[in-house]
Design goal:
Blueprint (H helix, E strand, L loop, with lengths): L1 H9 L12 H8 L4 E4 L14 H9 L3 E3 L20 E4 L4 H16 L1
Antiparallel strand pairs: 1-3, 2-3
Length: 112
């Protein structure tokens, strides 16, 4: 499980809070969570724009950061899916670089 490995690298002690819908973005924006991480499991899967657009805006307006797992900005110009992005990393902004570094480390280890 990528998320579990990333959490371990980051030293997160709190148990994961699993929730569907865009509520997860609201939780990050309010400061009740510092990270929302979505690492795609299926090759070729593309996130749907409607699952992320409003939440992205809420986190950004609260001072947080949202990118894909490679650190690229989310590109909403590609139609129904986020075809230029892979996965989602939403943070309070302060930990974003650390989270991306942990994601890269886990994905590199998997490639070996």
């Amino acid at each position: 499980n990528h998320s579990a490995q990333i959490v371990k690298i980051l030293g997160v002690k709190s148990p994961p809070f699993r929730i569907d819908s865009q509520c997860k973005y609201g939780i990050v924006a309010r400061g009740d969570a510092t990270i929302y991480l979505r690492v795609p499991g299926k090759s070729g899967y593309e996130e749907k724009i409607w699952d992320h657009a409003a939440g992205w805006l809420i986190v950004k307006e609260a001072g947080g950061e949202v990118t894909d797992i490679h650190g690229y900005p989310i590109d909403f110009s590609t139609g129904r899916t986020l075809s230029k992005n892979k996965g989602i990393v939403a943070t309070n902004g302060k930990l974003h670089d650390q989270v991306l570094s942990a994601v890269r480390k886990v994905l590199r280890a998997e490639e070996k």
